What does this fold into?
Amino acid sequence: MTYEPLHHKYRPQRFADLVGQGAIATTLTQALLKERIAPAYLFCGPRGTGKTSSARILAKSLNCLKSPKPTPDPCGQCEVCQQVANGTSLDVIEIDAASHTGVDNIRELIEKAQFAPVQCRYKVYVIDECHMLSVSAFNALLKTLEEPPPHVVFVLATTDPQRVLPTIISRCQRFDFRRIPLGEMVAHLQHIADKEQIDIEPAALTLVAQLSQGGLRDAESLLDQLSLYPERITVEHVWQLAGAVPEEDLRQLLGAIARRDAVAVLEHTRQLLERGRDPLTILQNLASLYRDLLLAKTVPERQDLVALTAETWQALIALAKTWSVEEILQAQQHLRTCESQIKQSNQPRLWLEISLLGLMTETAPQSTVANVTAITSPKLTIVSRESQAVTAPNPLKASEVKQVQTKDTKDTVAPASEPKPSPEPQVSNTEAIWEQALRVLQQMQMSTYALLSQHGHLRQISDREVHIGIVNQTLLNLTKNNQAKIEAAFSQVLGRRIKVAFEIAPLPHKTKPAPKTKEPPQSAVVVPFRPREEPPPPPPLTTTPDPVRESAEKLARFFNGVVIRLPDEGESPDTAITEGSEEDELDF
It folds into this structure.
C-alpha cells in the first residue's frame, strides 16, 4: 500500500474541518448557501494555514454532483469530488505561479477560460503563490478578473500580499488566514495521534505545536517524523529531531550572559554547534527568549502569553530582576541586527560568537552595521612624527629667536622649536581615516568590519602605527586573527605601510567638542612683545618718462630677463625684488 503523509491524509475536506479559521469558514459557507459566488477570491496568510485546502473545498462545493446547486458540504464521494481531491479534474486547474510567471502563460489561461467547463458547473482556476507573477502578467489578468465569464471562478493564494498589485486586490474578495492558535492545534494533533496510535507525551505534543509557529502542515509533518520512533516520544526526542535549541540550553546561555561569563558563553555555543544546531537558529531562539524575558520583566503574572514551561518561566522572572527594560530592548535590537549579518556572512559561527559576546559589554551595543559612525573620544591623542611647536602670536626675527634660545631654561616654560609647515592633525581627520578604513575593510571581510564597527574604536595614530581599542580580551583575540587585513585597509587609506596595535579599552561616548579658549598653551615661549617695524612708504609715482627705465626694460625683454633693483640702506629686502617698478635700476 502506498504511504500517504499525515498532512495529505488529514487534509480538511469541508469548511467545517478547517482548523483555526472559523470566520473564513462561516463567510464562505454563507456565500455558498445564498449562491453569492464572487468571480475572484484572494486567500492570504502564512504557509500551512489552509489556503490551498480552502480553494479545493470551494471547488468541490461549487461542483459536487450530489447537489443540484453549490453546497457548503460536498459529498467527497462523487467523481468530481474525487478528481478535485486527486488534482485530476479537467475543470479545476491549479497553477504554480512561481513556474508560470510570464505574460504568455496568463494569456493562454485567459483564452482557455472562455470555453465552457467539460463536466462541472464552474471552471475554477487556483493560482498559488500569485505574488510571483510579473507585472505584465498581472496587467493581462486585470480585465478578466473584472469581467470574467459567468462560469469561471479565480482563486488567488499568496503568502506575501504586499507584492500583489493593488488593482488586483481591489477586484477580489480578500480573506486573511491567521496562524493556527496553540490550543486548537494541540487538539488537532492529539486527534491524529489517537487515530494513528502514536505514543507521545502531552508535553512533547505541545512542543510540536509551539515549534510549528502556527503552521498546521509543519506540525503534522513533524509529528509524522516523530511517529517513526519505536519508543514513547518525549520532549528530548522533539528537540533532537526538530533541530531547535532546547529551553534548558537557552536558559543556561542566558544565565552566562547575565553573569558576564565569556568562557561559559563560548562553551555553551560550542556545545550547541557540535550537536548540529544552526548558528542562525541559535540566534533566533535566543531572540525569542529575550522577548519572553521582557514579558517576565513587565507582566510576570501572565504566563499564558508565552509558550514556555513553568520552570523556565520562573527562571526568566528571576533573571529579569538583573536587567532593566532598556537593557533588554537594546539586547533585542542588537540580536535583530546580528540576525541579518549572520544571513549575509560566510562565517556564521564567528559572527554568532561575536554577537553573543557583544551582549556582555558594560555598555549595551548601540551602533549597527547599517549605520556605522566613528566614535569620538576625549582621550584620543594624535602622535606626530616630530613634536609640534607652539609659535608666538607675532613672527620673530632670526636674531630674536637666536637670543631666546641662548637663555637659561629656567627663564622659559618650554624650549621653542622651529615651526613646522604642516599643521597638527585634527580629530575630524582621524574620524575620516577610521571611517574610510572601515569601508575598505567592509569590502575585504564583512565579519571583521562588523566587529570593529561595533566593539572597536581608534585611539591613536602615529606615522607608522595605529592603535585600536577593543572592549574586552575575547574580542581582542578574535580581532588579532585578521590583523593582516586590518593593516592592509589602513595602509590603503593612508598610502603607506601601517602596523596595527590592539589594546583593551571601553567604547568612548561621543561628545561634542569643547569650546575653544583664547588662553595661550602652557608650553608656549614667553617672549616680550615687540612692535613690528613698518617699512618706509614707497616713493610717489612719477608720470614723467624715464629713459633709463625704458632702456632697461627693452634690454630685459631682448635677453628674456627681468629688471631688479638692489635694496637701499634700511629698506626691507622683501620690497627690493620687483619687476617693472617705478624705481628699477640695472644690475650689471
